[in-house]
Amino acid sequence: MNLPNKLTVVRLTIIPFFLLLMVLPLKSWGAISFWGATIPVSQFIAAILFIAATLTDNLDGRIARKHHLVTNFGKFTDPLADKLLVMTAFIVLTGNQVVPAWVTSIIIWRELSVTGLRLLLVEQDGVVLAAKMPGKIKTTTQFIAIIFLLLNNVIFAIWGIPFGQIMLYICLFFTIYSGVDYFIQGRDVFSDGFK
């Protein structure tokens, strides 16, 4: 269990605590107001946990590549942890009526479809479909959208700018675009179905 794998496990461990903070009725904890936004304390703590989890995502990959600590455990759990974190956040935000259900449905559909495609490619050709720039932009914009939706558009709320919602639709665009891009790259895996 090297350091990158430990960071991935930390990210997986954060997810249930994030979920509990978002769904349990913890209104007695009160709310805090700063930079134009009023945020329930439990939601603020959940946002801090989400930010910590996103930082470990960036860090574990860098450490693994730099120090040649790439393992099968890491290859499996790192993308799994990312997807579980993002899907949990979007489902909770949909339950709280912050994100439309159709947006969350598209995001989950894309994540599961691309994961299935990657599994097929590995099984058939031993090819690992690496993340390209649209996929990296998708992940970054998803993280930014979720953070500002959790923090009720902090800073931007001063000017009445719905920054989190704007980022949500930008991330939706890149979610769809990168998903289509992955399927174009991996289209040969389905060639036997059209013979």
UniProtKB/TrEMBL annotation:
Pfam families: CDP-OH_P_transf (PF01066)
Known catalytic reactions: a CDP-1,2-diacyl-sn-glycerol + sn-glycerol 3-phosphate = a 1,2-diacyl-sn-glycero-3-phospho-(1'-sn-glycero-3'-phosphate) + CMP + H(+)
GO molecular function, one term: CDP-diacylglycerol-glycerol-3-phosphate 3-phosphatidyltransferase activity
The entry's keywords: Lipid biosynthesis, Lipid metabolism, Membrane, Phospholipid biosynthesis, Phospholipid metabolism, Transferase, Transmembrane, Transmembrane helix
Domain of life: Bacteria
Stated role: This protein catalyzes the committed step to the synthesis of the acidic phospholipids.
Family named by the database record: Belongs to the CDP-alcohol phosphatidyltransferase class-I family.
Name of the protein this chain belongs to: CDP-diacylglycerol--glycerol-3-phosphate 3-phosphatidyltransferase
Source organism: Limosilactobacillus avistercoris
Gene transcribed to yield this protein: pgsA
